[in-house]
Amino acid sequence: SAVISQKPSRDICQRGTSLTIQCQVDSQVTMMFWYRQQPGQSLTLIATANQGSEATYESGFVIDKFPISRPNLTFSTLTVSNMSPEDSSIYLCSIQQSGNLNIQYFGAGTRLSVL
Amino acid sequence: DAKTTQPPSMDCAEGRAANLPCNHSTISGNEYVYWYRQIHSQGPQYIIHGLKNNETNEMASLIITEDRKSSTLILPHATLRDTAVYYCIVRVPGTNAGKSTFGDGTTLTVKP
């Protein structure tokens, strides 16, 4: 199984600022995913980050608010821009295991609180 | 992806088997059943998956009915550390695993 490291593990931010979350994987993966988990809720996919191309965003999420970088096959960042209290959530990085088993692995998440 | 239905919560006594049901009555022939769990303050963790045969690994067993419209995840000897939200997901293996739809899951509470 893959090891996924997310930084920071948690942060408290002021309204209007931006936070960049890093995701580092211990092996090369083609597809990385970013999720949001609002308090008491299930996971919602924000976008799929493919190396060498623009991220693909799900309905309700836009690049200006959640810009994503994917400079290589082991690293990605998600930025939460111009934050408001409604952005307070856990943000999770995930990868798909190579092959066709469709098994996903997740980082421990970044717990974001916006004041 | 086929929609799944799970009970919102369940309790289980420590040391006893925990049986978590999942209904996926609209599952198609090439869709697999996957189970994940999310322990508080952690990311989801893969548990097990299957197509139509029963499966067992070091964590759990997966029982899929013959018509494949429902399944049960079995934790044979639940411990307090098994307290978590358990998600049942149905999808076709291949690309776009990230698009797996995580429903509300079942909150399992293991009690001493």
Helix proportion of residues of chain B, in percent? under 10%
Quickly give the structural class of chain B: mainly beta
Number of helices of chain B: 0
The N- to C-terminal Cα distance of chain B equals 37 Å
What amount of the residues of chain B lies in strands? 35-45%
Features:
heterodimer, A: 115 residues, mainly beta, 11 strands, 0% helix, globular, B: 112 residues
Q: What does this protein structure show overall?
A:
The complex is a heterodimer of chains A (115) and B (112). Chain A is 0% helix and 51% strand. Chain A starts with a strand and ends with a strand. With 115 residues, chain A is an all-beta fold. With 112 residues, chain B is mostly beta strands. Chain B has a 5-stranded mixed β-sheet, with no helix packed on it. A 4-stranded antiparallel β-sheet of chain B has the order 2-7-6-5, with no helix packed on it. Classes of the chains: A mainly beta (115), B mainly beta (112).
Record the SSE blueprint.
The complex is a heterodimer of chains A (about 120) and B (about 110).
Chain A: E1 4-7, E2 10-13, E3 19-25, E4 31-37, E5 43-50, E6 56-57, E7 68-72, E8 75-80, E9 89-96, E10 104-106, E11 110-114
Chain B: E1 9-13, E2 18-23, E3 32-38, E4 45-50, E5 55-56, E6 61-64, E7 70-75, E8 84-91, E9 106-111
In summary, what is this structure?
With 115 residues, chain A is mainly β. Chain A contains no helices and eleven strands.
